[in-house]
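Our platform keeps sequence and structure together, in a single record for each protein. Nothing more is needed to write down the fold, since each code stands for a local backbone conformation. An entry from our holdings is shown next, in its original layout:
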Amino acid sequence: MANISLSGALPSVDSIQESYMAQVHRRRLYGGLTLLIFGVLMMSGFNIADNRNAGGFWDGLDQIGDYPADVLSEAWEKRANLPGLIAKYFPALVETINIAAVSTLIGAIGGLFLSLLGTRGLAKWPRLISLFRRISDVMRAVPEIVIALVLIFVLGGGPVPAMIAIAIHTAGALGKMFSEVAENADLKPVEGLASTGATWSQRMLLGVLPQVAPNYVSYTLLRFEINIRASAILGFVGAGGLGYELRNAMAWGPGRFDEAGAIFILLFGTIVFFDQLSSRYRNRLTEGQAQ
């Protein structure tokens, strides 16, 4: 009798199905409302920006290809000059790569400490975990270009402000990624080292880093790709490198579009090269194979 009464108290299949469908409909309704609000905000923001521009977006839409066409046509007419121009701007490319490499290295070291100090079970000061996580959030929340503009105002133009700006943003971004990897690390080696009297740095160096090193290096290589693009973009605000030369060539207008074309070739080839190279090594690290 007890079994019968207990089975009678369980919800029926129909009631479970009705409850599930009600939750599905509610979720779809909330999703539709969120999408509608997002669309309204996007349209209103677009209209405000379009009204504040010197020219309307829709009025100039048919001219969107005029500038690239002028660059390509002039670069093709002066294609004999491209090898010499590529050699001329190669030092600026090296400067851009150096900015990306140094900022990635410094940012990876900063992200390493932020991740270990902000991960539960690994942090040296558990009460300060939230503080280190918020520091990481702030560092990656501020765009590199904003940091670079402030630093250029203080330090002047050149590669140093760009390097510092990218390093700060990289430390915040990698700190978040590294922390997620460290949270999945096995704590048994750490506990074993702690039982022998190892210090916190020794526990991290010998117990945690060997487990997470492949993913850490993989994320660092991925970030290096991103930082090459970022260092080129920061050149437009006077932070040196290939982006600075590209801004000058584009601002000069017709007559120097062949230089802009040569810089585009250098930049595009560099990004593709490092993208393929880092992708190959990242696949080796994470999957044990090169694709």
Remarks:
- The mean pLDDT is 84.
- The radius of gyration is 27 Å.
- Residues 13-52 form the longest helix (40 residues).
- The CA atoms of residues 11 and 227 lie 56 Å apart.
